[in-house]
């Protein structure tokens, strides 16, 4: 039995994919209005030397004209077959030295494209707990990568 610390992830975006003969192609990505510093760190190589301006123009655009987001979501509903949410971990809740959040895409299944987009958009800037995804005593597979230290220890 292995116990894994799993703080809730925060949904910050939505990606719509369209099927092509050569596979899936991302048609549109919609980001949330407010992104935390943890996820903004992911977009910089050196956080303390940066101006921390990532997504500032985007959030200003959303506050000035919210109909642009609804237009992009309507385009995803109309053309896309695969819908995935962009989620990031909350590193401040895990007691390790890292402050830069991990980003991941989580696919939404069930229903038509419009239902998927509405569900994903409803999760924007909200926490998704492990309890919402897995039930108690459910068996799951976990993939882990070790750092490796050569011939030491």
Sketch the major β-sheet: 5 strands, antiparallel
Which of globular, elongated, flat, extended, rod-shaped describes the shape?
globular
String of helices and strands? EEHHHEEHEH
Structural class, by secondary structure, is alpha+beta
* Helix fraction by DSSP (H/I, runs of at least 4): 25-40%
Stretches with pLDDT under 50, minimum 5 residues: none
- Rg, nearest Å: 18 Å
Helix count equals: 5
Number of E-state strands: 5
Quaternary arrangement of the chains shown?
single chain
Keywords, please?
153 residues, alpha+beta, 24% strand, single chain, globular
In short:
With 153 residues, the protein is α+β, with helices and mostly antiparallel strands. The chain has five helices and five strands; from the N terminus they run E-E-H-H-H-E-E-H-E-H.
Give a written overview of the molecule.
This protein is of the alpha+beta class and 153 residues long. It has 5 helices and 5 strands; from the N terminus they run ββαααββαβα. Strands 1, 2, 3, 4 and 5 form a 5-stranded antiparallel sheet that branches. A hairpin with a 2-residue loop joins β1 and β2. α3 packs antiparallel against α4.
């Amino acid at each position: 039995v292995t116990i894994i610390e799993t703080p809730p992830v925060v949904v910050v975006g939505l990606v719509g994919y369209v099927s092509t003969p050569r596979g899936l192609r991302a048609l549109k990505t919609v980001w949330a209005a407010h992104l935390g510093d943890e996820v903004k760190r992911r977009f910089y190589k050196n956080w303390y030397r940066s101006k921390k301006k990532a997504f500032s123009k985007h959030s200003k655009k959303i506050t000035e004209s919210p109909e642009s987001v609804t237009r992009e979501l309507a385009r995803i509903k109309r053309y896309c077959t695969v819908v995935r949410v962009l989620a990031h971990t909350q590193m401040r809740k895990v007691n390790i030295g890292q402050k830069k959040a991990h980003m991941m895409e989580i696919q939404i299944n069930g229903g038509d494209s419009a239902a998927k987009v509405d569900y994903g958009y409803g999760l924007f800037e909200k926490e998704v707990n492990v309890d919402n995804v897995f039930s108690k005593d459910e068996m799951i597979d976990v993939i882990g990568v070790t750092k490796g230290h050569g011939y030491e220890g």
